[in-house]
Design a protein that fits this description.
Elements: E1 4-8, E2 11-15, H1 20-45, H2 49-57, H3 59-92, H4 106-112, E3 115-116, E4 129-130, H5 142-148, H6 161-169, H7 216-220, E5 223-225, E6 228-229, H8 254-258, E7 267-271, H9 277-283, E8 288-293, H10 300-306, E9 310-313, E10 327-332, H11 342-355, E11 356-369, H12 372-384, E12 388-398, E13 406-415
Parallel strand pairs: 7-8, 7-10, 8-9, 10-11
Antiparallel strand pairs: 1-2, 3-4, 5-6, 11-13, 12-13
Length: about 425
């Protein structure tokens, strides 16, 4: 069943192929009509002959019986329509959260209310109402979500960014919008770009509420992750040498990687980019890089923004909010680790492949391999995508936390093929 165009005046009315949801609803409606008609046929043909003759000679009783049958058919149709409406909502993902419960905040109820389309059912999508976007796992954290949505409308937002991040890390993403004003922090002492890339950042412009550390010195003494040890010191130490000076064979130099690119590198995406050092080095080479991060144990997002770079506050469980085939380069490190569930890494890799253009580079930077089994599983996963291995190094490094233990890391630069 193809698409049909009907020329009307200056416009064109298009009737497109039905969607899965609308097709399912149509099938159920057809089934309902056939059922009610068969019921009516049975009702009018199953009576004995003498009873039919009796009805023929008693027209009033005949009319009464017919009315009763018609009423029964109408009740069947009404029940079928209610069932179809319920099935349609289930197919379209409606009503995943019960907002009628007493402990649900009024603002959350208002945000999640369904809004009828002004012109009725949309012929392209098959929907009849708009539903607010909120993560499906929010249902499991309804109490926390209701607490997050408890605020004074048009007043200041509560200082609860850590509560919102906790919801995100539980899969409640995206969060609902709120009608309150976020606390303003005076951003004084900011430098002009590109000087801002490597200048000290004032602690007064960062938000420390909900964090264990309350200053940058404390952060630089902690091992925040395998890739972030002293990483908030951007004026001295190793952070000033990253990507331009190698400490081992697993550390690739940015200029060497850029020389491998075909068609040039213009825009990139850094997954789990810490304080934004990779984006800073790329900015020096006129390449725009978006850094994905969360504020886990440190004010990463504000720190990156203070350097004049672009932070994207997003968990790795969220589908990347970019169109297909848009990035020239994607950089990632051990932040990709999916733990003990290989399917999680597999879903993530497919989303990385989706947003990377053909011929683009995927730079896997010092990915920690806990054992040979994990290294083998990662290697097989990468090989499934058919990427060309431009650089591939497996090596050992001493644990940066100072334990002296030797750890295995994989670094690679891979080129996405052009698929037909």
């Amino acid at each position: 069943m193809g698409s049909v165009s009907l020329k009307i005046g200056d416009g064109t009315a298009r009737f497109k192929r039905a969607s899965f949801c609308s097709s399912a609803v149509n099938i159920l409606m057809l089934f309902s009509v056939l059922t009610t008609n068969l019921f009516a046929l049975y009702a009018f043909t199953s009576s004995p002959k003498d009873h039919q003759t009796h009805l023929f000679h008693n027209p009033h009783k005949n009319i009464s019986l017919i009315s009763e049958h018609v009423s029964s058919i109408l009740r069947e149709i009404a029940a079928s329509q209610k069932k179809l409406a319920r099935v349609e909502k289930e197919l379209l993902g409606y009503e995943t959260m019960d907002i009628s419960r007493l402990n649900i905040a009024s603002e959350l109820k208002l945000f999640l209310q369904h809004h009828q389309l002004p012109l009725g059912k949309d012929s392209r999508t098959g929907i009849t109402e708009m539903v607010a976007s909120v993560g499906h796992s929010c249902e499991k954290s309804a109490d926390l979500l209701s607490q997050y949505m408890a605020y004074k409308v048009s007043g200041p937002c509560p200082g609860d960014w850590s509560l919102g991040q906790k919801l995100i890390l539980r899969g409640c993403e995206p969060l609902p919008r709120r009608r309150c004003f976020a606390k303003s922090v005076q951003k004084v002492g900011l430098y002009r770009f590109p000087v801002s890339l490597w200048k000290p950042i004032s602690e007064k412009i960062l938000t420390w509420s909900g964090l264990g550390c309350k200053n940058l010195d404390c952060l630089n003494r902690k091992k925040l992750s395998r890739d972030c040890v002293g990483c908030f010191n951007i004026t001295s130490g190793y952070e000033t040498q990253r990507f331009v000076k190698a400490r081992g064979k697993n550390d690739f130099i940015i200029d060497d990687v850029l020389a491998l690119a075909s068609g040039g590198i213009r825009i990139g995406f850094d997954i789990g980019g810490g304080p934004g050092t990779f984006a800073a080095r790329m900015a020096e080479r006129n390449v725009t890089v978006i850094t994905n991060t969360l504020n886990v144990d440190a004010p990463f997002s504000e720190f990156i923004a203070a350097r004049g770079l672009f932070p994207l506050y997003l968990s790795l469980d969220h589908r990347f909010p970019f169109y297909d085939n848009v990035f020239d380069l994607i950089h990632a490190s051990s932040g990709l680790d999916g733990g003990d569930k290989p399917e999680k890494l597999e879903f993530l890799m497919f989303d990385i492949d989706r947003i990377l253009r053909a011929g683009g580079l995927f730079w896997l930077d010092n990915f920690y391999c806990a054992d040979d089994e994990k290294k083998t599983a990662l290697t097989r996963l990468i090989e499934r995508f058919g990427y060309k291995k431009l650089k591939w190094v497996v090596g050992e490094k001493t644990d940066t936390a100072g334990s002296g233990k030797s750890e295995v890391y994989l670094s690679a630069v891979l080129q996405k093929p052009a698929r037909v």
